[in-house]
Every structure is written in C-alpha cells, then in structure tokens.
C-alpha cells in the first residue's frame, strides 16, 4: 500500500492569513493605524463621489455650471422651483419602499457608536446616503455632511466587522471613518479629527489619537488626488480681537446658543405637526418641496446647504435688513426641509446661519456705539458658535475656523464663544441636533459616549437561574426542613400558578419566637419589588437602591420567576466593566 502525502488545501491559506491579520489587529496598535489609513482613503473617495452626484444633479435640474453653487444663483424661476416638489415626491416614494422592507429606524454613526459598539449596517447606510444626496441634489435646505459621515463610518464598520475587531477598536475605527469624511469635505484634517472625537466617539481617548489622525490626513490627500474640491469657507479674518472684542464675542455665543435651541425645537415641532396631520407620509416631502419652492423664488440663498450664499453675502456687503430677511428665510427653509421629511443635516446650514448672525451682531454693536467689530471676524465667531449649538463639538468648530483663517486670535475668540454656547445648550437643553432626534425616538443618550455595553448587561443575562424556591403555602417547619441554616441566604416564594410571591430571609425563618406552624408567606419581603429580564445594569442598580435590599427576583411579564440577582454581584460586574472601559481608554486593554 502506497502512502500518499497529505497536501493542505489551498483554500485554507486565505483563512489562515485572515486569522493572522485579525490577531495582529487585536494586539498591535500599528496595524490598527494601518487599517485606519485605508478607511480614511475610502472615506475621502466616498465624500468626493457623493458631492459630485449631488452637485451634478443640481446642475442638471437648475441649469447652473458645475463650478457654481446653487445658493448663489441670481434667481430661481417658479417653474424650476417645482423640482423641489418633484424631488420630494421621489424621496417619499423611495422612503415608502424602504419602510415596507424593514421595521425600525435607520441607524446613524452616532447611534451606532453609542449603542451598538460601532456596528453599522451597510444597507442602512446606503439608504441614508441615497436619501441625503437626493434631498440635497434637488435643492432642499440640508447638507451632505450626514451622508459623508455615514458613508465613512459604514466603510469603517464593514471593515471592522469583517476583521472581527473588538468593541473599543470598532468604535475608534468608525469614528475615524466618519471624521475622515468630514475632514475630506472641508480639506481640514484637524476639523475631521475633532469631529470624530467629539461627535462620533464621544471622548478624547489616547488610544484613538493616532488612528483618527492617520485616517483624516489620508482622507484629505485621497480627496484631492481624486479631483475633489473641498468646501471653502473663504472668509478672511480681520485684526485679532482685543479684550473688549472677546467680551462681546462671548455675548455672541449666548445669542447663538438661544438661536440654536430654537431651531432644534422648531424642527421637532414641525415634525410632530406634520406626523400628526392627515397628509400621507409618501407625499409629505412633496408638500414640503412646494413650500421650499416659494422660499427659493423669494431668495435662492435658501436652497441647498448655503455654500455659495455664504461667500456672496460677505463679498457683496449685504445691508443688515437683507441679512435679517435671509436669516429668517434660511431658518424656515431648514425647518421645513427636515420637518417634512427631507434627509440631511444642519452642519453647513448652521455654519451659514452663524455667519449671518455674526454679521447682524457686529452691525448692531456698531450702530449702538458699543464697539466696532470686524464683520468678517464676527461672521467667523458666529459661524462656530451656532454650529456648536446645533451640531456640538466646540473644538471641532474652533479648528475649522483656525484651518480656514490660520488666525489664532480669531480661533481663540471662536473657542470662547463656542464654549459659552455649548455650556448653555448643555445646561438648558442637553442635546445636540443628532442626539435630540434620537431623544424624540425614545432614546436617552446625550452623546456618542459608549453606553451600549450597559444595555447588553441585562438582569436576564446576569441573574442566577434555578434559585431556591418554596411554595407560598408552606409553613416555617417545611422551610426549615428544606433549607437549613448555612445554606441559601434567601428563598423565593411562588404561588400555585408559579407566580412570584416574595422573598424569605433564611435567618428570619430561624429567628427566636417564630413558631414552626407559622405560614411562611408571613415572613415574605419584597413582594412588589422585582426585576424584569430586559432591565439594563443601570436600571437594576436603581431598583436595588429603591428597594433597599440585597437580592431581588427576576420575573417575566406573567410574574413567573426566572432567577435571582444579588446586588453585590451586580456591583462587582459594573466595576469590572468600568475598569475594562478605562483600560481601553488608554489603550491598555489589548490581548
């Protein structure tokens, strides 16, 4: 008999290579940085593609040049304005088809990083990007930044899922992808990096600095290599502010905070009114498009995100009364766009509105004789402060001003105003626009900080099954026979139908003066204090604090006992998870 040597199947080679790559990524930060570079390049290219698609659609529908901006058009003919309604109808039909095929809302990058450990569905992201490009392409007053971040985050999440990254690394990679896309859109890597830290990751983690920075730098270079034209704020700062200027710009931060909260509440109000109206969901964007068409005929500056209008108003030197009218019209256009179902964000719209508020503020200060503020500086500070009020991220917006102007004095004034605006919004309102929309859907998160791990630690997962039980109709003598001292500290009482009837402390059944024939249910405690299996660890700890007990039963919806949970175990588990989060924060949690 001839022995035939065994030859390893060539199909196993890619599997071994993938396993080795995954191991490298889990143990080496350098490999994660290398992966971030690839994700950054993909995010930059995706941003260029989406920008070209939306701008190409605008050029086709409104007859503008590819190098022109829709919001800077001289006028919009009433017939051309109907494209807003037609585009709204197309969006409504598309969204209706999507809703028929899936249940639940679409997950964005902030929600994915806060609740799902960076897991972002590719199909969800394609839908979000398509809706946003269509909305912006037909001229609705929404920006493409949401689509950029979604695409960059989705590319990162897909790569992370393919390589089976750990939760912490996945969140960093998704933040890097989203931030890289924003950095590519503005040609501003620092802005993109801090967008990742403040908006998508939710914290400045030492372990995230290198991957995020690498992704953002790569995305800017990739976008330029692909022929993309980054957004140019194009505002040249004046003289650096003096002490009086800093004080006045702090007041501008207050004004922008109030306006930002008002805009977010207006969007929520219009959404609620439209949702409760008899208008079918499929035609709501079309109705909104008719309203937007009227605003566009009155002022083309209400169209799209407002890139062209931002440059136009500062270059021409528009009178204050006109700036005030444009501010009102653009705010109305943004509220109508989002309230009636167009998809997009308020990132650049808030930047544009902020420049208008800043110029009006400077004009008011000049007319009142308080001080003379440079309109350009005021526009830059207002731009950053209002964007922080709506989007969040004081350092993000301050670095945007710095990378735009290269002026540290104006950037410092923007940071001061942004911090004031951020503090007031956080204190009095508590949400950015993205987290406010999630709040309206019933979520409680206020940032992208990782709280998903808390939701996965439920009472059902932590409880001890098959705990000691006894029929509620038993006597103390029966209890003593089944559960001697030194055994279980607590016993669950159940009724004849298996429903929970309370807990009995073993020590209380052996207390002096308790007669053996006493019904055991007389000694029961916590009859009304129970846990449900879906309660997360935060809710469980609150329940223990309210009940002032050391153990609670976990029961289902019918009241039947599923298990027992001890406060000491919950506290240890919570501390263990916090320690793990702390180690990940400093990059010390690698295998």
What does this entry show, briefly?
By secondary structure, the chain is mostly helical.
Describe the protein's architecture and organization:
64% of the residues lie in helices and 4% in strands. The chain is mainly alpha-helical. The protein folds into three domains: 12-225, Clc chloride channel; 243-448, Clc chloride channel; 453-578, CBS-domain (Roll), CATH 3.10.580.10. Strand 1 (469-471), helix 21 and strand 2 (490-494) form a beta-alpha-beta unit. The two termini are 48 Å apart. The mean pLDDT is 86.
The assigned CATH architecture of the largest domain is Orthogonal Bundle
Which fold name corresponds to the CATH topology of the largest domain? Clc chloride channel
SSE pattern: HHHHHHHHHHHHHHHHHHHHEHEEHHEEH
In DSSP terms (H or I, runs of 4 or more residues), the helix count works out at: 24
Helix-and-strand structural type = mainly alpha
Main sheet specs: 3 strands, mixed
Mean pLDDT: 86
Instruction: Name the CATH homologous superfamily of the largest domain.
Output: Clc chloride channel
Low-confidence regions: none
- Provide the helix percentage: 55-70%
CATH class type of the largest domain:
Mainly Alpha
* Number of E strands: 5
Q: In which order are the strands of the major sheet placed?
A: 1-2-3
Q: Topology, pairings included?
A:
Layout: H1 12-27, H2 29-62, H3 78-101, H4 109-115, H5 122-137, H6 145-162, H7 167-186, H8 189-201, H9 206-225, H10 243-276, H11 284-298, H12 307-316, H13 320-339, H14 347-368, H15 375-390, H16 394-405, H17 408-428, H18 433-440, H19 452-456, H20 459-462, E1 469-471, H21 476-482, E2 490-494, E3 500-505, H22 506-509, H23 537-547, E4 551-555, E5 561-566, H24 567-585
Parallel strand pairs: 1-2
Antiparallel strand pairs: 2-3, 4-5
Helix pairs in contact: 1-2, 2-5, 2-6, 2-7, 2-9, 3-5, 3-11, 5-6, 6-7, 7-8, 7-9, 8-9, 8-16, 10-13, 10-14, 10-15, 10-17, 11-13, 12-14, 13-14, 14-15, 15-16, 15-17, 16-17, 23-24
């Amino acid at each position: 008999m001839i022995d035939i040597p065994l030859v390893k199947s060539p199909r196993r080679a890619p599997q071994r290579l993938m396993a080795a790559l995954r191991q490298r990524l889990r143990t080496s930060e350098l490999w994660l940085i290398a992966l971030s570079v690839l994700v950054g390049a993909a995010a930059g290219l995706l941003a260029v593609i989406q920008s070209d698609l939306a701008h190409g659609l605008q050029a086709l529908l409104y007859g503008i040049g590819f190098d022109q901006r829709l919001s800077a058009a001289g006028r919009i003919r009433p017939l051309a304005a109907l494209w807003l309604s037609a585009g709204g109808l197309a969006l409504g039909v598309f969204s209706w088809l999507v809703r028929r095929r899936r249940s639940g809302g679409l997950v964005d990058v902030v929600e994915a990083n806060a609740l799902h450990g960076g897991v972002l569905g590719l199909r969800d992201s394609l839908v979000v990007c398509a809706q946003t490009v269509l909305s912006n392409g037909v001229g609705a007053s929404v920006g493409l930044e949401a689509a950029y971040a979604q695409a960059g985050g989705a590319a990162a999440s897909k790569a992370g899922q393919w390589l089976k990254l750990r939760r912490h690394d996945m969140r960093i990679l998704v933040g890097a992808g989203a931030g890289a896309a924003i950095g590519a859109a503005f040609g501003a890597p620092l802005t993109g990096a801090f967008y990742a830290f403040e908006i998508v990751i939710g914290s400045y983690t030492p372990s995230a600095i290198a991957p995020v920075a690498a992704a953002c730098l790569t995305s800017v270079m990739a976008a330029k290599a692909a022929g993309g034209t980054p957004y140019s704020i194009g505002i040249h700062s004046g003289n650096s502010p003096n002490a009086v200027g800093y004080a006045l710009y702090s007041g501008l931060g207050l004004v922008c905070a109030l306006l930002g909260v008002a805009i977010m509440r207006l969007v929520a109000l219009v959404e609620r009114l439209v949702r409760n109206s008899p208008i079918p969901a499929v035609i709501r964007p079309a109705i909104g498009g008719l309203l937007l068409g009227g605003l566009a005929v009155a002022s083309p500056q209400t169209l799209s995100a407002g890139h062209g209008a931002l440059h136009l108003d500062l270059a021409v030197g528009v009178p204050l009364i006109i700036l005030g009218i444009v501010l009102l019209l653009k705010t109305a256009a943004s509220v109508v766009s989002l309230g009636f179902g167009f998809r997009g964000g308020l990132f650049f719209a808030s930047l544009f509105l902020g420049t208008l508020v800043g110029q009006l503020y400077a004009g008011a200060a000049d007319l009142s004789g308080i001080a003379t503020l440079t309109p350009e500086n005021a526009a830059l500070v207002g731009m950053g402060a209002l964007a922080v009020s709506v989007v969040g991220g004081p350092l993000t917006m301050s670095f945007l001003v710095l990378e735009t102007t290269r002026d540290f004095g104006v950037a410092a004034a923007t940071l001061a105003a942004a911090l004031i605006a951020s503090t007031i919004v956080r204190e009095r309102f508590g949400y950015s626009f993205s987290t406010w929309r999630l709040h309206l859907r019933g979520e409680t998160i206020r940032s992208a900080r990782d709280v998903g791990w808390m939701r996965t630690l439920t009472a059902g997962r932590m409880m001890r099954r098959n705990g000691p039980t006894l029929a509620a109709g038993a006597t103390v003598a029966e209890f003593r026979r089944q559960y001697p001292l030194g055994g279980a500290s607590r016993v669950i009482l159940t009724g004849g139908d298996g429903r929970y009837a309370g807990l009995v402390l073993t020590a209380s059944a052996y207390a002096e003066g308790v007669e053996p024939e006493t019904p055991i249910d007389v000694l029961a405690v916590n009859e009304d204090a129970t846990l449900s299996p879906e309660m997360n660890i935060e809710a469980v700890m609150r329940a223990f604090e309210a009940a002032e007990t050391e153990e609670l039963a976990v029961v289902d919806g019918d009241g039947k006992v599923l298990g027992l949970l001890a406060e000491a175990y919950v506290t240890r588990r919570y501390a263990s998870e916090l320690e793990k989060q702390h180690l990940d924060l400093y990059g010390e949690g690698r295998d």
